[in-house]
Amino acid sequence: MPPRPIWKGYLRLSLVSCPIRLYPATSQSERISFHLLNPKTHTRVSMRPHDAETDQQLERSELVRGYEFSKGRYVIVTEEELDAIEIESSKTVDLTRFVDPNEVDLVYLDNPYYVAPDGKIGDETFRVIREAMARSGKAGIGRVVLTNREHPLMLRPHGKGLVMITLRPADEVRADTEYFKEISESKLDEEMVNLAVHIIEQKSGNFDPKELAGDRYRLNRRKLSTSWTRFDVASKRKVLRRASQRHRATGELQQGTPRRDAAARPRAEAQRQNEPAPAAPGVTKMETAMARPAPAPLPRI
Fold first, then answer.
1. Inter-CA distances, 13 with 18, 56, 91, 97, 208, Å
2. Residue 90 sits in the same domain as residue 153
3. Which site in 121, 163, 233, 294 is 20 to 30 Å from 141, CA atoms measured?
4. What is the dihedral of CA 55, 56, 58, 64, to 10 degrees?
5. Residue 124 domain-assigned (yes or no)
6. Claim to verify: residue 16 and residue 146 sit in the same structural domain
7. How many domains does the chain have?
8. pTM
9. Which pLDDT score, from 0 to 100, does residue 301 have?
10. DSSP one-letter code for 185
11. How many degrees, rounded to 5, is the angle at CA 116 between CA 112 and CA 122?
């Protein structure tokens, strides 16, 4: 079954447009997450909203939104006011400028999405736009509305299709001046620089995404979770096995299932009746045998 697109719309280049589909290029399904549990019952804990001052528990339907304009002071914003400023959902990716992708600073890159044509009707137009961008070596810059928010984007060829990367707004990216101001600008030792260049050349190669796989912390968490699961299953099997043994010992089997030793009961009872009584403390076996009553005489013929 093909993956479901998260967005459908149109890609427009001047007077040319084609229907497209958008798919997330990343997945978080392999991440290991934990839940908060009650240590006594091992059931999940429900986080309920409550007043931070009075500790009064509230229903989510009672909550309102507020903006903190100073410490501890809020202005209430209603849902109607938020709906009034909501951006109209546009189903068009409009490319307004084309740039060299190397000019886009990495700190602006946000989330990647795969872009594919939506149906056979727009297939040729889509491939024309992709081929033109590949030959020119340019990336398209535009905007798209996703989940009621407008995002700047960069669009560039990727494989047989396109990849769209949402860009962070300029006011969300911090300037690097404050972090690099203590780095010295003194002259470097050329021998040290040449040695570093030599090491880099020795370790140079092609980029392999497989080398990025295997977060060791995530792998350790998965192994830990797997070991817990196996231990839990083994413990349950052990408990069931012991319970089954107790049922067999006490005869509490399912109705209609005979005991294996049922036929041996009469023989065992008869043997117990014929066995001599245990000797009293301080009495020898010989004395016990002499005190035993003599058997009745056989009748004469």
1. 9, 56, 14, 10, 33
2. yes
3. 121
4. -70
5. yes
6. yes
7. 2
8. 0.64
9. 47
10. -
11. 145
